[in-house]
Amino acid sequence: MSHRYLVLGLLSEKPMTGYEIKKRAGSALKSVTNASYGTLYPTLHRLLEDGAVRMEEHIQNQRPARKVYAITERGQQELKQWLQQPPNDDQVRREFLLKLFMARHLEPDSLKTLLLQRRESSRARLDSLERLRTTASASTPPNQVWVTEYDMEMIQTELKWLDRLIAGIGAAT
Question: For residue 47, what pLDDT is reported?
């Protein structure tokens, strides 16, 4: 999980202190992240350096200044761009490969269901990448286009492999 986008997303709700960000992440996103202060504060500092967030110090009586972070227009644009991109499939891919490795414990119908679900998910990712590629403009950096095209080729190869495997299971049952 990218803590960068976690922080940007939370700050897009409202300005917060580091403590409030940690508390909000823990309460609302406990099943998604276990972000610690050791992760959040370095992320906040990088976002400050990049101009994606700004920080204001609020003076308090007999206490250290309260640092409140807010997302900037640049941060809003970065978050919006990230939200429109296809999700990172690395964790999903690892879990699928582990299940595939353990598939000898599945009945053929259950294995076929697993493969069909993966095929549907891969097809959806490919469709999303195709939309992203068609909306790319002349100002889109070539390396971004290359990464998109690479991802598309990898997914197309996976879809062909899944189709062969699914057909083989259908023939064997």
Answer: 97
